[in-house]
Amino acid sequence: IVYLYPDDMNRLCPYIRDWDKEKLLSLVDFTDKIVLDIGSGTGRLAFAAATTAKKVYASEPADRLREFMRDKIEKEKISNVVVLDGTVESIPFEDNTFDIVMSGYVLGVDYSREVANMERVCRNGGYVVVCEGESESEWHRREPLIALGFECLHYLSKAGGDCYRYWKKVTKS
Asked: DSSP assignment of 25-70, as one string?
């Protein structure tokens, strides 16, 4: 396993460097919501959501990345983001806890089970949001997510690559 520092990721991955948080914030209304970002990494999605959300929980299994996010929280005096350990396979929260559950680059081992776990912690009427990156290799994710009821937004990034964002309203009986 190779770990990249955040500055390396920005340099080597233009879709992260050129990422526009409005592409996330325009999918669903984050205003005053309780949000979970699974596999938060450097917190790109979590910090974007935190600009309007009431509270954001950034779940990340890698120690260094959790440390990076905590340093950013302290440095930028961000008061509505909580960093914790966790994965999509083992979300450390009770059912129906969040208004929005989101991720980027964490799905792919077993879409049905992973999405079901995300939906488990999402409240009825809430949303599951999946933000994939920019690359032709991401196209394979489209069909399984569409089959699970997700809507899809496709756009070209500033670097000219294909980007996909998926969202699904959670309906529980």
From this structure: HTTS--TT-EEEEET-TTTHHHHHHHTT-SEEEEE-S-HHHHHHHH
User: In this structure, which amino acid lies at residue 1?
Assistant: I
CA distance linking residue 59 with residue 66, whole number of Å: 8
Q: How far apart are CA 14 and CA 170, in angstroms?
A: 32
The pLDDT mean for the chain works out to: 86
User: What's the pTM value of the predicted model, to 2 decimals?
Assistant: 0.87
Q: Are 168 and 128 in contact (CB under 8 A)?
A: yes
Nearest to 112 by CA among 148, 72, 76: 148
CB 2 within 8 A of CB 67: no
Distance CA 122, CA 46 (A): 16
Q: What is the pLDDT of residues 84-127, one digit of tens each?
A: 999 999 898 999 999 999 998 888 778 899 999 999 999 999 99
Amino acid present at 119: E
